[in-house]
Structures are given as structure tokens and as C-alpha cells.
Amino acid sequence: SVSAVLPAGGIGERLGGATPKQFCAVQGRPLVSYAVRAMERISWISDIIVVVSPENIETMKTIIEKYGHKRVTVVEAGITRHRSIFNGLKVFAENEFSSRLLQKPEVVIIHDAVRPFVEEDIVSKVVMAAKEHGAAGAIRPLVSTVIASAADGCLDHSLERARYRASEMPQAFLFDIIYEAYQQCTDYDLDYGTECLHLALKYCKTNAKLVEGTADLWKVTYKRDLYAAESIIKDNLSQQVCVITNVNETHAQIGFLLPESLKSQIKVEAISISLSKNDGHLQNIFSGQCYNFVCVN
Questions:
Q1: Which residues form the D-ribitol-5-phosphate cytidylyltransferase C-terminal domain (predicted)?
Q2: CATH number belonging to domain 2-233
Q3: Do residues 84 and 91 lie in contact, with contact meaning Cβ atoms separated by under 8 Å?
Q4: What is the DSSP letter of 80?
Q5: Strands 267-272 and 155-158
Q6: For the chain, what are the domain ranges?
Q7: DSSP calls for 223-285
């Protein structure tokens, strides 16, 4: 079994403005909703934990209801990124942050709520690598050379760029390994650390497998990233088809074959619902901003 934890408790200092970046609207929809949907579309992910600051819990619940997100549990964030992720993991092992324990997964994915474009292929590769090695994470080549400055503000040395990689998300871990690592963490690590893979290595001697990621794993950090995200989402939506069928066996079979034949050319989301009985669900689909619809009747 596989579950996902999405830390979304940050305040977005580098973005500026009063709204944290994960709640900024892109094409009229909050950024965090895209990240949740990316995980939600992967049928083998059992539970999605979204960790948000206390003042944004009701906002997140409203987003879940408005966009019809399923399998999502909202958890209160800590004061730092690592404390927030730890809170998300505790939902599977302790009753502190949830009224009921969720089923503990074999593998847990950790993914940023402001990386909306992750695809199932890279998630699957990272999960399979974590199952074999205990921990795994996506990486990308460095696009800039990293330099170190001396105390006087002058160049001290630079790193050989070819030897280093940028650590990205998603990352995945055997649940017992990453949970044990967080249980053993010092307060310093919880307050100042940023790299989950390092915690698995430091406290559980688990050397993570690094998986070459794709160019679309980038993180929305600055305002220019929001504009870029909007452009990408517009392009993706214009190529997307939602196939709606009745639950009638014949209709459902056609609804299955049609996406299979289209998916090599276009992004297809197949949804089998009874139009006469689930008008509310249909409205959720419309609010999801799929631009093109095929109704099999």
C-alpha cells in the first residue's frame, strides 16, 4: 500500500503577498488543488495527507469540498517543514492529529503542495525504488554553478557542477524507515533541516536511490512561477478530454475503450457516473476545468 503526505503549511515569504503560494489561484483554482489532483489521479495511492497551518485548515477543507477531492485528510502543520511532515506521518501511527488512525502504508510519498505537474510515471519510479532501497528521491541536473563565499564576501570555491544534482520531489520511503528517522530527530534537525533523504541516511543508515526526474517537477516559488504555471495549465487543459459515461454496462465498456484509444494523442480522464443520479458530482467535474467533454449515451 502507498500513501502520500503533502506539506502545505508554508507562508510563501519569497512569493510576497498576503496569500500563501499554495492557496494562490491559477486559472481560478488554488495551486494546492492541482497537486492533490495529481496524487488523486493515481489509483494505487490510498490516502493523501495535506498538512496546513491551523489558520488555513478550514480553507483547505473548503477546497476539498469544492473540487470533489477524495481520499484526503487535512492535518495541522508544525512550525517548520520537518515538523509538518512528521505530523502528517503521525496520522498513520498515533491519534494525536486525527480522530482515527489510517491504515499504515508500506511506502509513503512526500511531495510539495506547490509542485503541481508531477506525473504518475515518475511517482511510480520513485515508489518502486523506495520499496527496493528503503528511500528514493527525484533529482535534476544543476542549471547554475554553486559557489561558496569567504567571510570577506569574495569567492572561496565553486563546486564541480557535473558531480552534483538538485534534489527535487517526489520522494518516497518505506514508512517504518522515515517514521523512525523522524522519531529520532533532534530539535535542530526538525527546526532547520530541509532534506528528508538526509534524515533517512543519518538516523536509519538508509542510502537513498536517486531517480532522474523530469523537467516539469519544478516548484512554484516566485510570482513569475505562477505565471509560468498558468501558461502550462492552460496548454494542458486545452488538450484534455473528460469522458463521461452512464453506469450501464455497454456505455461503461465504450467509456473504457475510448480513453484507451485516445490517450496516445491527448490527456484523457475517464469518469464513469450516472448522469441522472449524480448531478452534484458532475458539477464538481465542471469546476475542475476540463475544457473538452465526451458524453457516451
A1: 239-297
A2: 3.90.550.10
A3: no
A4: S
A5: unpaired
A6: 2-233, 239-295
A7: HHHHHHHHHHHHHHHTTEEEEEE-SSHHHHHHHHHHHHHHTTTSEEEEEE--TTT-HHHHHHH
